[in-house]
């Protein structure tokens, strides 16, 4: 497969093609995604949820869970608050 750096470079090159694409074609999808795993629905909370894992070529599965995404947004908002200048004091 090659080194981690070369695998990440290949993923980056494919993602650039996807970024410029006007449509998501089967060709692009096949280049970008290795497999999709759809888990059984979960109704234990009273709401229907369903986990879907996307395994990308060259980098594997990325954690895109709702919890992780919310945590990333909170972290970014906290960093913005700490490091961006106050708009009113400019």
Count up the helices: 3
Largest sheet: 3 strands, antiparallel
Estimate the strand proportion.
5-15%
Distance between the ends: 51 Å
Number of DSSP strand runs: 3
What is the chain-wise order of helices and strands? HHEEEH
Shape assignment? extended
- The helix fraction, in percent, is 40-55%
Derived structural class: alpha+beta
- Rg, nearest Å: 18 Å
Mean of residue pLDDT? 76
List the uncertain runs. Answer: none
Q: What is the strand arrangement across the widest sheet? A: 1-2-3
Query: How many domains?
Result: 1
Summarize the structure.
This protein has 90 residues and is of the alpha+beta class.
Q: What secondary-structure arrangement, pairings included, does this model have?
A:
Layout: H1 4-20, H2 26-32, E1 33-38, E2 52-56, E3 60-61, H3 66-83
Antiparallel strand pairs: 1-2, 2-3
Describe the structure.
With 90 residues, the chain is α+β, with helices and mostly antiparallel strands. It has one domain (4-84). It contains 3 helices and 3 strands; from the N terminus they run H-H-E-E-E-H. It has a 3-stranded antiparallel β-sheet with strand order 1-2-3. A hairpin with a 3-residue loop joins strand 2 (52-56) and strand 3 (60-61). The model has no long low-confidence stretch (mean pLDDT 76).
Summarize this structure as a short list of keywords or feature phrases:
90 residues, alpha+beta, 3 strands, 47% helix, extended
